[in-house]
Structures are given as structure tokens and as C-alpha cells.
Write a sequence for this structure.
């Protein structure tokens, strides 16, 4: 009797260890990633020079003796910021209004049609978006680029922003809709009782109440836009210089890595790893901003 | 409050992009602004009349270049003098495409585009521009009249495994070089020895230049057909990656479409695989008859920005 | 350009001024303004929802209309010769990779979630640590995973371009997703189930495996479907780890390309535009079916 009890407890205990070990895998994975990225990237940043790396405007790893290769990532940082902002300008209003529509204005028959559509948008691989951008968006923008800026193939901030905006729509819509639906019904009832129209109640009472959820949606959208690689690489032109015009090309941090990582060795490769570190820091800052905003919202 | 911030942000964004170099003046030739949407660009004179009296395309040139580790780019900028004192002065506005195929796609879809690829990769979706009046063909590369050419090298680690050495021998033999010639490249010499090896088994991994992948795949296919139980995997990663992989022992040998540098030769050896021309490609409907090497250089440095400046 | 910003500034100033002034307008005018405002916003919701649907509809229509005509048996050829465009090896590789990734990440993620929910007091530092780690993992861009996978699995551990490198990298990528969805599913199982089970004398282990997990299955399954979708759609991370060789892998150490990587490769070879469209069609079909399956499961979940 005692033996069986003990083996049952022994089994319990050992399984608990197993579960705990599994939980530790996440920590191990994070640490591994951090170690490899930082040991690769940080020395490079110091060797290139903190100022030259973060604020240098010339990225030219191919320059060689007697010149010195240049590793300034500022053009890519600004490029990533621009296309992310562009994606937000396009994706957030459309996404938010669609979420409001889905939550409050939409007849049930239309809802069962639109919701799967939004989910489908989420599942399309980014190379499909990129390919679509390449063959449809870029040629569409090309005549405008040539007319307004006197040149350009159509690969531009605009093309990347439109594409990214579409790509973050599902994220923004999904989470905003949940947030809006989570607002208690009596908010709406109270507003209506006070005489406001339905539209006014939704926009001026419910939406502000769902603020923190909507902000979460925006932050997640930003995360997706910043981390997007293939689609941006296919439509943004990839010029390694400071952005000049909405209708001209840029290079994002992610495209920089994916284009040059295969060939790079030595300092060039470590510089690209450092670019990865910059990306990581970006995401971390955005996440911290989110936590801060949520707390402030409460 | 939030709306104001949003409006301010948008205003700031517009301001930023406005304050940069806005590109050229907007007084472009109206004939270039036809509704040139998607695949069918503005029609040029239907049959490309080689006589220079025709009014060809005008407007800004869309320069397409390769990414910074590409052997083709290295060879191109060196041979044209765009690389000077170690600085690659390629036009900063040039759109960067990764890989030979991407450059072809970009040029084939844009009437105003110009790019450069390996001569052996030219198919009928784009047109190879004659340089200094000399058409871009393998014969002209061989007899020296076509000025833009470079050599394909193989970066081999010091100790080659037997199968790798055998495959290498096949590549430089008469049979291997025959395949190269049939694909539009130039053999490394005449009177090459016939292949006399074989009988080994195993798997080989090769990586490197996107310009060389197609040729390598065909030679490998021929080799694998002769020798069952051999497998050759070819990764198309770019010259720089090929050299790096060979240097770090990750592949049997690497393909490089440029000469190896002294720093690299400290770790690997270099074997000549074939000769190749560099084709300057334009859209099939681009009627320009020929460009000089100086014009090509200036175009790719951004100093010749409009098609109208080429005649 | 300077003029535009001047207009914008004037516009913003006017807007702010109006905001403070408009309350002094007569009642009837105000009411009319509100009604117009309402109409504008209401129609905007319809318009933007329409834009969303239209955007997706256009993309899908464009790909289907350009791809379906080019679907041919050649694209599904089993024997791949060099330079071929068959997607059959890619499909096999994708299936293989999904199986391996799920085999690694689902048990790991599930057990982690079980640990977090069932075994630890909420608020303990360990739970917060694991959860933060999972959050951070979730936010890392896929290209950084590709970098890491290349440096760690391919180079440091010497696995080379291989299915193994690729699936290990993807498993780490999928962990946060599985953990989060399993956690949600576990939390949604009512405590009364647990209490009842303990009251009947079952140990924690038995409770977890016999009572809680089966009840949480629909939620866990939803997470698994999501993970499958992500693995199928991933490209950047796999290009650096699993490589791009078009072949049916004969061992875990062979390089292979998944369907998405295959499509990307095709799109960068100038002459295969039609084949790219066709491959995109197949990809879309896969995504559609995954979505349909998850929809069916969701409906089953809410019914029970």
C-alpha cells in the first residue's frame, strides 16, 4: 500500500519536473537567441563605431581597399520607420472602422461573410502579398512616380505601405473587434438612453472605452509591419540611402538582412547581425510602449 | 487630442519626404506618360530600326543593380571603372534586385529599365544591348571584340574530397566545357582533355553565384547521369556566400562570378570554370542600337539620367 | 511642398478653433451637424469594411485568374529534373516540416502551458518569467529567427542547410503561439471540473491528462491549426536554414524547400511568372482549407 502511494507521488513529482523543464525551454531559447545575436552584433557595433553605425548615412559594405567599407544603418532605420508609419496610416483607420462595422453596424448575414474573409487575409503568406505587389502595385505606381518625381520604377514607400497596410488589417481588425465587443453593453444602453444616436454612442462612448484593446491591436500591427521581410523586399526598391520621396524606394532593416546575409562574412556579417539586434530593440521598445500605454489607460 | 497628433504626424511625414531631394524636375516628356500600366509599356517604333534617326524612348532611365555581395556586380563595376579607389560609385537611386532572375523580371517589365546580367543567362524576355557597336554574343566574347566579360571561378578548399575533385575534373574536361558552350558561355581553352574519372559515390554540396547556378546544374545533371549513386546539391546564394561557404568548409566548393581577392585566396584556391560575357540588358521594345562603354558607365553611376542623353 | 504644410497648419488651427466654438452655435444647426457627422461616420464604416473585402477579393481574384489557367500536370511531376518547376517536392517537404515542427513544439508548448496554469500559483516570479520569455519570443521578427537559426543550428551545431535546421528554428517560433493558445484553453476549463476530480481522489497528473486536457482540446487544436498556417506561410526563416533545393528530402539532413519558399524562388526567376501564379493558387487553396478546418472546429467548440 505504501509502495503504491510512494510511486504515485514519485510519478507526480517527476512529471512536475518534466513540465517545469518544458517551461524552461522558452527561457533557454530566448537566452540562446540573445546570446548569439549580441555576441555577433555588439562587437561589430563597437568596431564600426556607435556613431557611425547608428547615425551613419552610408551603407556600402562592398567598398574595399583603399577605401573603407561603410556600415551606417540610419537609412534603413528611417526606411523601416517610414513604411511602418505608412502602413499604420493605411491599416489603422480602415481596420478600426471595419472592426466597428463588424461589431455594431453589420447585419448578421454580412458578418458571416466578412469575418472569414478577414481571417483569410491573415493566412496568406507574405511572399504571395509580395508577388502581388510586384506585378500589380508597382506597375500601377510607376507612371505616377515618373510624372511626379521624374523617375522611379514604382517600387516605393507607397507600394510598401499599401502592402503592409493590407497585411496588418487582420491583426488590427481582429483585436479591435474583440476589444470593442468586450465593452459592456450597458455603456451603449446608457448613451442611447441619454439621447445619442447609435453611431454617436459607438464612436464617442464605446470606442474610447475600448481604447486599450485598440492600442494593443495597433502595437501588434506595428510589430508585424516592422518584422515583415519578404513582401517589403519585393516592392520597396532596396536603395541603401536616406528616403527621398514617397514614390521612391527605400530599404528596410529586414530587407537589408535578408539580401546581404548569404554573402556576408567577417565584419559585414556581424554588422548584419547588429542590424538584427537593432530590430530586436525596436520590437522591445514598442512592446514596452504598449505596456506603458495600457497602464496609463487604466 | 489624438486626432491632432495624428494630423501632426502626417504633416511631419509629408514635410520629411518633401525636404529630401525630390528627384528631377517634373517637366518630363508627355509622350512617356501614356497610361503605361502593367505589362504593356508605351509602344516604341514597332520594328527596332537600327538607324539612329528614329526617335526612341525618352525620359528617365530606371537603373537596376545587384546586391552588394554579388559577383556579377563586382565584375561589372570593376570592368567599367565604376569601382574607383575601392569605392563602388553605383548610382545611389539604382533599384537593387537580388539575383539574376529578379533583374530580368525588373527589366522585362519596364520599358525604361536597364540592368546587367551574365550573358549566358540572357533569354528572349530581354534584349542584350550591343556595346561599342559589337553585339553581345559568346563568339564576340571569345574573340575579344565584346569588351564586357568576366570569368567564372570555383573557390575550392585546400583538401578536396575525392568526389569533389572528380566532379571538378569533369567540369574542366572537354565534356563539361561542351555543356558550357552550349549554354552560351565561353570555354576555358581549346583541346581540353576528355574526362577519365568516375566510379565514386556520395553527395556533394555546392553553393554560390546565381549567375553560375544554371550552368552548374546542367553540368551536374550530366555528371549524375554518368555516375549513379552520386548526388550534387546546388544552392543559389550569391558569389560572396559561395566563397564564404567554401572557406568555412560548409560546401565542397563555391561558385564565384568574380576573381577571388587576396584575402580570400589565403583560405581557398581558385579554379577557372568558364568565361562569360556581361550583358547590359534592356526591355525588348527598347530601340536604342548601341551604347558605348562610357555611356554604360555613366548610366550606372547616375551621371546619364535620361534616355534622351544617349543620342 | 512648403505651401502644403502651410495649408495643413491652417487647417489644424481652424479645426481646433471650431472645436471650441461650435458649442455656441444654435440648437437646430448643431442637431443638423450631428446628423451629418453621424451619416459620414456610418458610411465610413461601410466603406472601409468594403475596402477590406475588396482588397482581399482583388488579390485572390488576380491570383486565381492568372494562376488557374496555368495549372498543369507538369507542376505536380514527381520526378524532378534540374530547372524544373514542379511543386510536388515542395509539397512533400512542407508536409514533412509541419509534422516535425508540430511533433516538437506541441508537446513542449502544451506541457509548458500545463505547468503555468496547473502547477504554479499565478503571480509567482517563475510564471512571470516564462510568460515574458514567451511574449518576447512571439514578437521577434521571423528574419531574426532565420539569422539565429543560421548561426546556431546551421553553423554552430553543424547541421547545414537541412530540414532539421529549419524545423528546429520553426519549433522555437511556434512555441509562444502554442503556449498561449493552450493556456487560454486550459483556463477556460471550469475550476469545478478540477475540484470535482480532486474530490474524487484523483491526483493532479490524472486530473490533467484525463479531465482537463481533453476538455481543452478544441482550443489547443485551434492553436495547432494556426501554427500549421504559420509554418506553411513562413519563408524568411526557412531560406536561411532549410535552404532552397528543390528535392524530396531523403533524410532529415537534406535541404529542401517548402511550398512558400518554392513560390518565392519561382517569382525571382524572370521566366516563370505563370508558374509562380499557379503555385500561388495552390498555396491559397492550402490556406483556405486550413481556415475552413479551423472554422469548423471553432463552431464545434462553441456548440459543446
Amino acid at each position: 500500500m505504501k509502495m503504491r502511494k510512494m510511486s504515485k507521488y514519485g510519478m507526480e513529482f517527476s512529471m512536475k519536473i518534466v513540465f517545469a523543464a518544458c517551461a524552461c525551454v522558452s527561457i533557454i531559447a530566448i537566452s540562446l537567441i540573445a546570446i548569439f545575436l549580441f555576441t555577433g552584433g555588439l562587437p561589430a557595433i563597437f568596431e564600426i563605431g556607435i556613431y557611425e553605425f547608428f547615425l551613419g548615412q552610408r551603407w556600402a559594405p562592398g567598398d574595399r581597399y583603399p577605401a573603407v567599407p561603410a556600415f551606417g544603418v540610419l537609412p534603413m532605420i528611417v526606411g523601416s520607420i517610414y513604411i511602418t508609419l505608412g502602413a499604420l496610416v493605411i491599416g489603422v483607420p480602415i481596420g478600426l472602422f471595419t472592426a466597428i462595422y463588424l461589431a455594431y453596424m453589420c447585419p448578421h448575414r454580412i458578418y458571416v461573410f466578412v469575418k472569414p474573409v478577414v481571417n483569410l487575409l491573415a493566412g496568406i503568406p507574405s511572399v504571395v502579398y509580395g508577388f502581388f505587389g510586384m506585378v500589380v502595385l508597382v506597375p500601377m505606381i510607376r507612371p505616377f512616380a515618373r510624372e511626379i518625381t521624374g523617375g522611379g520604377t514604382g517600387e516605393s514607400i507607397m507600394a510598401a505601405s499599401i502592402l503592409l497596410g493590407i497585411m496588418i488589417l487582420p491583426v488590427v481588425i481582429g483585436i479591435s473587434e474583440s476589444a470593442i465587443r468586450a465593452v459592456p453593453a450597458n455603456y451603449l444602453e446608457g448613451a442611447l438612453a441619454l439621447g445619442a444616436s447609435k453611431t454617436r454612442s459607438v464612436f464617442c462612448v464605446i470606442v474610447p472605452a475600448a481604447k486599450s484593446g485598440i492600442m494593443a491591436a495597433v502595437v501588434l500591427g506595428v510589430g508585424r509591419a516592422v518584422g515583415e521581410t519578404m513582401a517589403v523586399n519585393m516592392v520597396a526598391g532596396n536603395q541603401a540611402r536616406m528616403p527621398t520621396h514617397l514614390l521612391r524606394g527605400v530599404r528596410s532593416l529586414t530587407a537589408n538582412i535578408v539580401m546581404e546575409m548569404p554573402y556576408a562574412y567577417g565584419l559585414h556579417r556581424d554588422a548584419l547581425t547588429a542590424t538584427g539586434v537593432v530590430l530586436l530593440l525596436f520590437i522591445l521598445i514598442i512592446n514596452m510602449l504598449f505596456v506603458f500605454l495600457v497602464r496609463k489607460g487604466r | 487630442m489624438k486626432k491632432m497628433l495624428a494630423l501632426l504626424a502626417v504633416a511631419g511625414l509629408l514635410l520629411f519626404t518633401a525636404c529630401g531631394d525630390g528627384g528631377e524636375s517634373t517637366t518630363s516628356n508627355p509622350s512617356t506618360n501614356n497610361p503605361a500600366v502593367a505589362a504593356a509599356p508605351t509602344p516604341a517604333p514597332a520594328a527596332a530600326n537600327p538607324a539612329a534617326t528614329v526617335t526612341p524612348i525618352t525620359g528617365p532611365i530606371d537603373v537596376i543593380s545587384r546586391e552588394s555581395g554579388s559577383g556579377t556586380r563586382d565584375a561589372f563595376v570593376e570592368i567599367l571603372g565604376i569601382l574607383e579607389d575601392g569605392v563602388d560609385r553605383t548610382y545611389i537611386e539604382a533599384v537593387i534586385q537580388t539575383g539574376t532572375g529578379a533583374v530580368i523580371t525588373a527589366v522585362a517589365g519596364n520599358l525604361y529599365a536597364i540592368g546587367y546580367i551574365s550573358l549566358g543567362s540572357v533569354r528572349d524576355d530581354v534584349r542584350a544591348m550591343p556595346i561599342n557597336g559589337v553585339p553581345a554574343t559568346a563568339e564576340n566574347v571569345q574573340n575579344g571584340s565584346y569588351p564586357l566579360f568576366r570569368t567564372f571561378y570555383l573557390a575550392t578548399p585546400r583538401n578536396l574530397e575525392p568526389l569533389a575533385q572528380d566532379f571538378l575534373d569533369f567540369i574542366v574536361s572537354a565534356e563539361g566545357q561542351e555543356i558550357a558552350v552550349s549554354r552560351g558561355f565561353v570555354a576555358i581553352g581549346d583541346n581540353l582533355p576528355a574526362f577519365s574519372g568516375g566510379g565514386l559515390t556520395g553527395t556533394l554540396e555546392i553553393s554560390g553565384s546565381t549567375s553560375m547556378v544554371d550552368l552548374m546544374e546542367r553540368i551536374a545533371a550530366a555528371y549524375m547521369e554518368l555516375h549513379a549513386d552520386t548526388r550534387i546539391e546546388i544552392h543559389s546564394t550569391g558569389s560572396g556566400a559561395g566563397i564564404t561557404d567554401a572557406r568555412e568548409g560548409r560546401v565542397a566548393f563555391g561558385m564565384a562570378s568574380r576573381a577571388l581577392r587576396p584575402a580570400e585566396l589565403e583560405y581557398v584556391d581558385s579554379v577557372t570554370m568558364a568565361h562569360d560575357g556581361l550583358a547590359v540588358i534592356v526591355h525588348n521594345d527598347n530601340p536604342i542600337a548601341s551604347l558605348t562603354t562610357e555611356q554604360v558607365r555613366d548610366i550606372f553611376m547616375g551621371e546619364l539620367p535620361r534616355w534622351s542623353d544617349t543620342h | 511642398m512648403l505651401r502644403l504644410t502651410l495649408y495643413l497648419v491652417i487647417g489644424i488651427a481652424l479645426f481646433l478653433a471650431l472645436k471650441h466654438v461650435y458649442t455656441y452655435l444654435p440648437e437646430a444647426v448643431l442637431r443638423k451637424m450631428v446628423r451629418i457627422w453621424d451619416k459620414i461616420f456610418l458610411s465610413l464604416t461601410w466603406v472601409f469594411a468594403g475596402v477590406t473585402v475588396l482588397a482581399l477579393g482583388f488579390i485572390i481574384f488576380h491570383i486565381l485568374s492568372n494562376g488557374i489557367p496555368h495549372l498543369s500536370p507538369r507542376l505536380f511531376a514527381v520526378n524532378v529534373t534540374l530547372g524544373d518547376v514542379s511543386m510536388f517536392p515542395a509539397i512533400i517537404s512542407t508536409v514533412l516540416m509541419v509534422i516535425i515542427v508540430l511533433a516538437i513544439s506541441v508537446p513542449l508548448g502544451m506541457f509548458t502551458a500545463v505547468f503555468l496554469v496547473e502547477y504554479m500559483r499565478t503571480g509567482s516570479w517563475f510564471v512571470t518569467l516564462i510568460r515574458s520569455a514567451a511574449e518576447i519570443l512571439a514578437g521577434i521578427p521571423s528574419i531574426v529567427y532565420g539569422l539565429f537559426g543560421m548561426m546556431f543550428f546551421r553553423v554552430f551545431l553543424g547541421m547545414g542547410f537541412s530540414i532539421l535546421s529549419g524545423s528546429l528554428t520553426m519549433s522555437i517560433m511556434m512555441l509562444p503561439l502554442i503556449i498561449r493558445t493552450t493556456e487560454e484553453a486550459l483556463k477556460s476549463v471550469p475550476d469545478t471540473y478540477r475540484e470535482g476530480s480532486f474530490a474524487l481522489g484523483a491526483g493532479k497528473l490524472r486530473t490533467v491528462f484525463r479531465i482537463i486536457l481533453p476538455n481543452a482540446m478544441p482550443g489547443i487544436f485551434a492553436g495547432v491549426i494556426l501554427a500549421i498556417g504559420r509554418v506553411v506561410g513562413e519563408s524568411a526563416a526557412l531560406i536561411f536554414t532549410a535552404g532552397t533545393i528543390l528535392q524530396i528530402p531523403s533524410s532529415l539532413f537534406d535541404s529542401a524547400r517548402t511550398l512558400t519558399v518554392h513560390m518565392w524562388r519561382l517569382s525571382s526567376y524572370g521566366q516563370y511568372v505563370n508558374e509562380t501564379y499557379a503555385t500561388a493558387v495552390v498555396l491559397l487553396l492550402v490556406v483556405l482549407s486550413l481556415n475552413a478546418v479551423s472554422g469548423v472546429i471553432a463552431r464545434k467548440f462553441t456548440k459543446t
